[in-house]
Amino acid sequence: MWRLHQFPLCPFSRKVRLLMSEKGIGYELWRENPWDGSEAFSDLNPAGRTPALHDSEKGLILCDSRAICEYFEETVDKSPMINGTAATRAEIRRLVALFDENFFGDVTAPLLYERMKKRLVLRQPPDSRILREAMKLAHDHLYYIDYLIDNRPWLAGSQMSLADLAAAAQISVADYLGGIDWQGHEQTRGWYSVFKSRPSFRPLLSERMEVIQPPRHYADVNA
After folding, report:
1. pLDDT computed for residue 37 by the predictor
2. Is 0.90 topped by the overall pTM?
3. Which domain holds residue 158?
4. Is the pLDDT of residue 116 over 90?
5. What's the pLDDT band for 42 if we cut at 50, 70, 90?
6. Cβ neighbours of residue 89 under 8 Å, at least 6 residues apart?
7. Exposed e or buried b for every residue in 62-98, given b needs 16+ CB within 10 A?
8. Residue 180 and residue 140 in contact, taking contact as beta carbons nearer than 8 Å
9. Is there a domain that residue 94 lies in?
10. What is the distance between the alpha carbons of residues 44 and 40, in angstroms, rounded to a whole number?
11. 95 CB contacts (<8 Å, ≥6 apart)?
């Protein structure tokens, strides 16, 4: 069986977990704290970043969330997540890059640093200016998702895709850390509520980090 080396609030780990669950791929979780610098984990992934997948029976190691998702798209037929025409597949990949890079850099990364790493590792208070800027940029990203949902059933088109998984993974971490103000984003809230109701998403909503607790609405599928 696959062993997924991951961190609970790593959005890229969450994206892979969602994809594997949607495709019915069995795996066991193995927690890696990003601040530990484990030599054993570095042997699996020299980049030192989660997620990484290891199947000892197959002697196979997969690293980087996009590479992992592409691997399963090519090897598991169930529930394709990069589907449709060539143009649709290009749009899916564009949006995955947008959420993995822009949303993460603008919103998720600063929230993780200020509200998680500073508290658990550095023992420092968060910088309120950086938090305000991250929440402001979160609004900009949610407005764009509102626009997409106004024009499409799912983010990249007529079917759920890896773009939806990538966006939901980033939003779920930002929401856990109190960085999402849902006011004025009814389209995105409705899309996300549907996503939260999926069986693949429920394990994520039930997990809690030590010390850091999410807002009350976090696990409410109707919120």
Report:
1. 80
2. yes
3. 86-198
4. yes
5. confident
6. 82, 83
7. bbbbbebbbebbeebeebbbbbbeeebbebbbebbeb
8. no
9. yes
10. 7
11. 155, 156, 163, 166, 167
